[in-house]
């Protein structure tokens, strides 16, 4: 029995190491969200930090509210894409094992 517990602990440590590597990899990834058929693009990393914003000059020909809406929509799209990508990668790491509600790995 004691040997089995040691084996489980080793597996848990190995999984923890893999999770750490995955978290570091995901923090470095860059995902682009967009709106207005590409008129506004937002690049976000895996930590949900905005790294770059590109706004087509035609957006500024419209009213301010239009531009603000496109920017907000592009940010929301980027957040959604980062979350989906993170969930997918974590599912690969955990072998599809469902995590308890509220346990949002890695961040």
TrEMBL record:
Function: Binds to DNA and alters its conformation. May be involved in regulation of gene expression, nucleoid organization and DNA protection.
Species of the source: Salinisphaera dokdonensis CL-ES53
Keywords: Coiled coil, Cytoplasm, DNA-binding
Start and end residues of each stretch annotated as Disordered: 86-107
Chief location of this protein within or outside the cell: cytoplasm
Quaternary structure annotation from Swiss-Prot or TrEMBL: Homodimer.
HAMAP family cross-referenced by the UniProt entry: DNA_YbaB_EbfC
SUPFAM superfamilies, A to Z: YbaB-like
Coiled-coil positions: 5-32
PANTHER family: NUCLEOID-ASSOCIATED PROTEIN YBAB
Classification via InterPro entries: YbaB-like_sf, YbaB/EbfC
Protein biosynthesis in keyword set: no
Protein name: Nucleoid-associated protein SADO_00865
């Amino acid at each position: 029995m004691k040997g089995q517990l040691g084996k489980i602990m080793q597996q848990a440590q190995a999984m923890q190491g893999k999770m750490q590597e995955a978290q570091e990899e995901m923090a470095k990834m860059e995902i682009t969200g967009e709106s207005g058929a590409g008129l506004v693009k937002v690049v976000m990393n895996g930590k949900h930090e905005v790294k770059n914003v590109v706004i087509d000059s035609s957006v500024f020909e419209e009213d301010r509210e239009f531009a603000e809406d496109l920017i907000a929509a592009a940010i929301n799209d980027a957040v959604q894409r980062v979350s989906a990508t993170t969930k997918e990668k974590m599912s690969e790491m955990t072998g599809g094992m469902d995590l308890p509600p509220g346990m949002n790995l890695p961040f």
